[in-house]
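Person: Please work through this fold.
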Amino acid sequence: MVVEDKSGDDLSALRERVRARLDVERRKYRELFQFAPACYLQTDPNERITDVNIAASRLLRVEQQRLIGRSLINFIPQTARKAFRIQLALLRDGQELHGLQIPLQPRESDPVPVVIDVVPARNDGEIVAYRWLIRQRSKEILPSGDHMRRAHDLLEAAPTGCFLVDREWRLRFVNPAAARIMGRTPEELLGVNLWEAFPDAASSGFADIGHAVMTNTEALEFEELYRPSHRWIQGVAFSTDDGVCVFIRDVTKSKKAQGAEAHLAAIVRATSVAVLSLSATGVIESWNHGAEDLFGYKAEEIIGRRVDAIVPEDRRRELDFLKGRSRKDVHYATKAVHRTGRLIEISVTLSPIINAGGDLIGYSLISRDASDQVRTERKMRKTLKRSTRRAEALQEKDRLKDLLLVAASHDMRGPVATLLGMALTLKQVHPFEETSVEHELLERMIANGQRLERLLSDLLDLDRISQGLFQPQRARIDVGMVAKGVVQGMAGPDSPIRVVSRPGLAEVDPMLAERIIENLIGNALKFSDRDEDIVVEVRPEDGGVQIAVNDRGPGVPDEIKEDIFQPFTRGTSGKEGHGIGLTLVKRFAELHGGRAWVEDGRGGGASFRVFLPTEFPSS
């Protein structure tokens, strides 16, 4: 059995019934309006009649169709127009008028006294029309002194500025609001010629408007910049029997806001970044050139459609912010659907749009093409992986090298000690003549054996330090005395080494302090001529003791002053060395919480320095 889905038909039928009911209600309203006993009419903001019922047509003695488009002011007697215009100014300020007593002038007839009620009609807060209810009185009631006083009081209290000038341009009335806009007090302005009080206005658009109104019965609206005070003034001016009446207000803030909005809108339109706005339900309301370039849609093609049009099916969950009416800024990377159907990588910044009342009215969405960024990130990830693999391979090689060096050091230490011992024993047991070849060969064997033994010892010390197995044995000693002892043990009678020291106490390992000074002196001897002085300085400093070994050698270039303390790094002089001694100096200093560095010597050469703190660092 096939069941037909009639939900679509039922919905269409319901729509037709609602439309028919609305048509009936409109006709009823129109009939009530047309045949009401009271006079009803509607005008635009400029008081031109846009709709009128039969009773009003009869009162004014003009056919309904011929009334459309005519100004209501034409049906006010000349003697009453001044008071009527004053009331109209209050109406333009957004106020309602009730019980306004004024005469109407029907066509080819005497004035008729009426009572008028007027209510502004608004759309989004803006006045778009006025609705007039006119009731005829039994006898003529013209504006009395009481009515004029009431109008005067209303103008005094009105938030809109109002002033009157006579035919000589003298100010006859200025309310407080107008005086504030003019930057004076009412007392300062009354009786003064307007153009003398404001000479800059006499040669501006304000004067053109004033003179035009003075010679014409038509009211003129204006908006002008008064340059001396940098204020924008908006208003309406109309002629009276005695001169001109002007209503003004300061719109500087709104003009600045409009300018800022226009500037911002121009920036948004011109920017290459895609900027679009959504309603609270996800309908696209604006679409700039950047969005056209990124997504491929022209503004007229996409505005009014839901944002789903550019969101892939598998990413619709990203639109959950619409259901939850989120008020948070969101940043994320995603994909979008181009007009051609292809997917594009984009980055998105989504922000809520909140009105002055705190209500969520929509969202702004800023998007950028992230295709290049995504490709770059992928390349960077691949490069990082390759670099990581290379670094790991280098670390492994370095680890194997260290293992080989340590293993070789351990394995070679025994044979080297044996060979050195045998050479020394041979020298004692069977001494050769000093001039013989045998004596020279034996001395070389002993010297090289001792160098090799020191190298192996240094390598093993480096390994122990790297593994954290080297523990200094601290004691409070005078480092200057240690330096003197080392120099005495190394220097002969003609040695160029001198010691300059002052008492400097530090908590250090005595053996390591000796090794530091020995290695620094050995390095200086290696790079100095025999007759060049080497000065060892020891002096106390704030928080510790500084050791400096100064030579007159070739010095150390700036580019290797940091690397010179790395293992197997040697200077550029070509002198022989294994590059371990300075490394141990640096490591021994760091074990004490100190540091080692090199500077240029004061008279040339190099000055290798070590700082050892007074207090031994806690572990």
In short: Residues 1-8, 139-144 have pLDDT under 50 and may be disordered. Residues 179 and 185 are 5 Å apart (CA to CA). The first strand starts at residue 39 and ends at 43.
